[in-house]
Amino acid sequence: MNRRVITRPIVLSCSFEDRAQPYLEALRLMGVEGDDVLLVTPERVAAADAPALAAEAGGLLLCGGPDLEPHHYGEQPHPHANLSTMPARDAVELGLLAGAQEAKTPCFAVCRGLQVTNAFLGGTLWQDLKLMWPNAVLHDLSFPRDALIHPVQALSRESELGDLLSREPSLVNSRHHQAIKELAPALQAVAVAPDGIVEAVTGKDPDWWLWAVQWHPENLVTMAGQRVLLERFRDQVRARAASQRPTPEPALR
Question: What is the pTM of this model?
Fold first, then answer.
């Protein structure tokens, strides 16, 4: 593979270092080496430093993980919802998204990442699908990580992501018990599960590349239709680096 250098690292946000490994391996298969990735966890980075990190990054990758605290989308915890939260990570990632939005840093968000992004931009979440959407299809099969358990259907081919997901029947893995309830105004839904749960979104801001999916493509990179999602993110990171590279001064004669 002809690898082009990424001059600004991809910020990869997760709960703990060991949880980052599938994402790091997937990026490596895309030609993105470890030196091109800055791993962010709540233990490594203070929330106050997060916006500047994302603003200076080549890209932002938000990984799966625990539930977002409901107050971030204007709700109280449902008394019967099965919630597992990590407030320090919430604070870091909301800061990362603020910095990425301001600097137009390309962003790819996975599972929890989609949910955090939706809340950051003004949307809400179903706190517990089993409790609140009893007729939902199976969404929370944790093992094996690459088990394909339900299809996703593109809503249109108008966006690049929608077009990619329209090209072939898309079966995906799925391990989440929360999902988008009210879609943020700044997002466009591009694919849904058979029960109507939003499975993929893109940002409406033409200057900010933002894709998010509810499933886990990092576990499915042997599938061309899933690998291409990470390839598009990598390409956006490289394009950002190329656009910010200083123009050489003409030689003096």
Answer: 0.94
